[in-house]
Amino acid sequence: MSLHEDVRDAVTAHTNELYFLLEFVRDIDKYIIAQAEERISNVLDTMPTNVFDEIRQMLSESIGSLKVIDSPEVGRHFLRYMFAHSVPVRYPKLLYSAALTHAIAIFESFLNDFLIAIFTYRPDTLKSESTATYKNILSFGSMKELIRHLATTKAKKVLEGNIDEVVDKLKEYFNFDVSGFEQFNILREASYRRNIVIHNGGITDKDYCKKIPGSQIGVRLSTDFQYIETLITVIGRFIDHLDNHFSRKMHYMRHSMQNWILNPELTSISASGFGGNKPPQREGKR
User: Fold this and answer.
1) Do residues 166 and 187 lie in contact, with contact meaning Cβ atoms separated by under 8 Å?
2) Phi-psi region for residue 224, left (φ > 0), alpha (ψ -120 to 50) or beta?
3) What is the pLDDT of residues 117-164, one digit of tens each?
4) Residue 52 falls within a domain, yes or no?
């Protein structure tokens, strides 16, 4: 393997994941809407006319009238009716939140693989003040294994902390400010949004507001399909931006056409060249 092959594989594998994540969200989003309409229709078809009239009357009045439902039959149909109407609201929220966290996870996984490749094939980038004992060094079967270990360790160190800290480390190690990417603010916000989705139910806290200008504490962030589509597209562009810069800096051959986000026509190539709709498999490290 070589640097350009490892980078090519990282770009291909992770943009492929992003592409199919977006397609999955798009398809499930359509399915949810279609199923919700069918569910509501089924509920109404099985609801007695007198019960429907009573529920419609309840909904047209103040919310206070919903506190007590004397008829068990009305209560049962009412709950089915309300649940059917909640599906197109609740299900997409769960879907978009999961898509957001997964998209950022794919992005971070790409950065990890990309940095490991750079550190492995350009050992001069591994220089540091750290020391190791002969025992530690001799525990590796070859110099290649040692370099791969050091590269993996350093990549992990670079990616520790929040996205702003990662930017600072990349600037320190490579003299390259990735925040100069024109849409970096979208990646940055999504990274912090992922944190509050996981740890605070999607409600903004002081840490999020400290990082994101114009935000307010206690606001539930709304993530929709457009947000996910924009985020995944921006991640694909950022990967291309990173690849373009480092290919020139590290002198390796670039495979820009392997980016699935920028080249969605790869799906037709995949169908003919990789058998059916099976995506290309990433080559293992050797």
Assistant:
1) no
2) beta
3) 999 999 888 877 566 665 676 677 787 888 888 999 999 999 999 999
4) no
Residue 195 included in any domain: yes
pTM above 0.85, yes or no: no
Note down the domain range covering 7. Answer: 3-20+100-273
- Say how far apart CA 273 and CA 80 lie, in whole Å: 48
Nearest to 103 by CA among 181, 25, 217: 25
Please write the tens of the pLDDT for every residue from 189-247: 999 999 999 999 999 999 999 999 999 999 999 899 999 999 999 999 999 999 999 99
Predicted confidence at residue 38, as pLDDT, reads 58
The residue to which tokens 């160190």 are assigned: 157
Number of domains in the chain: 1
Tell me the backbone φ, ψ of residue 148, rounded to 5 degrees: -60, -40
Query: From CA 12, how far away is CA 261, in angstroms rounded?
Result: 10
**279 domain residue, yes or no:** no
Contacts of 234 (CB under 8 A, 6+ apart): 183, 186, 187
Instruction: Name the band, by pLDDT with cuts 50, 70 and 90, for residue 280.
Output: very low
Q: What is the mean pLDDT of the chain?
A: 82
Do residues 171 and 184 lie in contact, with contact meaning Cβ atoms separated by under 8 Å? Answer: no
Structure tokens at 31: 């399915």
**27 located within any domain:** no
Residues in the chain: 286
Q: Which of 95, 83, 72, 73 is nearest to 39 (CA)?
A: 83
